Amino acid sequence: MVFDYMDHDLTGLMERRGYALPVPHAKCYMKQLLRGLHYCHTKAVLHRDLKASNLLINNAGVLKLGDFGLARTARADGGGGRALTNRVITLWYRPPELLLGATRYGPEVDMWSVGCIFAELLLGKPLFPGAEEGEQVDRITRLLGTPTEATMPGVSSLPHYANLQPGRYKANGLRAFLEARGVEARAPGAGDLLCALLTLDPAARITAIEASNHTFFWTDPKPAEPGDLPQYDASHELDMKRRRQAAKAAAAGGGGAGGAAVAAASSADAKRARHGPGPGPAPLAAHARHHHGGHHHAPPPPAGWRPPPAAAYGYGAPPLHGGPPPPPPPGAGFPGGPPAPAWRGQRR
Questions:
Q1: Is the domain of 253 the same as that of 170?
Q2: DSSP string of 217-278, one letter each residue
Q3: Are 123 and 247 in the same domain?
């Protein structure tokens, strides 16, 4: 299969920007996410693993949904049909009904994930970063209140309802939480949209098309156009994680010149993101010139090294690169043929 190359995922892009995306940029990405998700839901497809690192973005500003490995078809209202597993959606983006054991659900589980992504864009960090399911439930209920039959009809019939402590967290403090962090002042209408996405009652959760038509997208500052978004060197979650590890190693004195170079490149990327491109080539261009501007020679072999005999590369030899040995010649293991290798029949 051949796919479009996407320069970034949203996690990598936010990290490159120091988790400080301007509101018009966040609106642009959210509108594209909601439109794409609305299309999936009209085709009765649930994504079931929406998170920032599964939103792919190219340097033309186009956002695409990625990683449909957990996607399934289901009725739009979540009713009827077969039961679905609740062991889906990355923990930080998993809705409370799945954490409490629900197996009948529909597009509303994706909309909770959208709310978590939206909060991450607004706050610059994940809203519910639980380490395991019990902590995840506690983080959600601490902010939104412990579910009751009034706030989440049917909750008492869910398999894990007995694990809740009724009345432990009584009030929904999401609006106050956002106001205390200046979200509403910076992005008018964002609080109302986020509350509609992160409602405990799945049936009351806003749909993708309703969210895309929310007044948040029609108030100033307006969404940026994809083509007006700035371009950056490629930034993906795994690459940024490696940069962090290299920078940490360099800071601890164990990274050497390589770690220092990666840390310096990361710092330059962050500066360019804040202030725009400065003089001199971007790190990727410098990297390409370093490797392709002249001949690149491998280091000489150690003294006394001799190539192994030709037979060492043939049948029955141990693997050279960690995989299984080469396949046996025709007839191996059969009467009249050479013996079968020792690894045949073993689990690999």
A1: no
A2: GGSSSPPPPGGGS---S-B-HHHHHHHHHHHHHHHTT-SHHHHHHHHHHHHHHHHHHHH---
A3: no
**Pick from 137-141, 172-176, 336-340: least confident:** 336-340
The pTM (predicted TM-score) of the whole model is 0.71
Q: Do residues 166 and 254 share a domain?
A: no
Whether residues 22 and 113 share a domain: the answer is: yes
When pLDDT is averaged across residues 223-233 and rounded to a whole number, the result is: 92
State how far Cα 299 lies from the chain centre: 39
Which positions are annotated as active-site residues?
A: 49
Using an 8 Å Cβ cutoff, are 242 and 263 in contact?
no
Using one digit for the tens of pLDDT, what is the confidence trace for 52-68? Answer: 999 999 999 999 999 99
Q: Which residue has the tokens 């796919």?
A: 3
240 and 171 in a single domain? The answer is no
- Asked whether residue 28 is domain-assigned, the answer is yes
Amino acid (1-letter code) at residue 21: L
Answer for the pair 53, 6: CB distance below 8 angstroms, yes or no. Answer: no
Q: Is the peptide bond before 221 cis (omega within 30 degrees of 0)?
A: yes
* Cα(196)–Cα(141) distance, integer angstroms: 16
CA–CA distance, 175 with 278 (Å, rounded to integer): 40
SS3 content of the chain, % helix, strand, coil (to 5): 45, 5, 50
**Domain co-membership, 107 together with 253:** no
